[in-house]
Write a structure and sequence with these properties.
6 helices; alpha/beta; 7-stranded mixed sheet
């Protein structure tokens, strides 16, 4: 069984102003993934925060959520260029970790392809990637307020997580690490 190269990108809003907001749940989870995947700490790169090993590359978008597509597409292209063989470039998989309003806090949902379902960050990624590039989405549940009023929903997603919710995201990173390992092995 050959193992495929995996590039895991998180989308959210940039630190420090938006650190640990619900809307940046993907970033919060990604910051805990090196512990679960036994990767080095994140370092600053020209295109965002990066943690890499021969098995996994983790990258955090520095852009605002709704315009994260171009940086994700550029980082993905750079990652593919770094792979030594055409077989690795063909087998490589892009995984995007993002917040998911329609999922209970701390739950994850894994999907391959499909529409953005109203998620502006995912819309931006889909539009920026070359046509036909499929990627795996890992939605991290942040729950939703009872109201559907757009102003109240916007205020809800921009609020800071409680310390307990941040701890929950560290546990969610364990679930996401298992998804990444399954994708690497070709099980997913």
């Amino acid at each position: 069984m050959s193992l495929r190269p995996i590039f895991v990108a998180s989308i959210g809003n940039p630190a420090p102003a938006y650190t640990d907001t619900l809307h940046s749940a993907g970033h919060t989870v990604l910051t805990h993934l090196p512990d679960w995947l036994l990767l080095p700490p994140f370092t600053k790169s020209r295109s965002g925060l990066l943690s890499a090993s021969p098995d996994f590359t983790l990258w955090q978008s520095p852009a605002l959520m709704n315009v994260s597509g171009k940086p994700v597409a550029t980082a993905w292209s750079t990652f593919l260029s770094s792979l030594s063989s055409p077989q690795d470039r063909n087998a490589a998989r892009l995984v995007v970790v993002h917040d998911e309003l329609e999922l209970a806090l701390g739950k994850i949902k894994v999907r391959d392809g499909g529409s953005a379902r109203g998620h502006n960050g995912l819309k931006s990624v889909i539009q920026a990637l070359p046509h036909g590039i499929a990627f795996t989405r890992v939605g991290v549940g942040i729950g939703r307020p009872l109201t559907r009023d757009s102003r109240e929903v916007a205020a809800y997603v921009m609020k800071k997580m409680t310390p307990q919710e941040v701890d929950m995201m560290a546990d969610v990173a364990g679930q996401v690490s298992e998804v990444a390992r399954e994708i690497r092995r070709g099980v997913r």
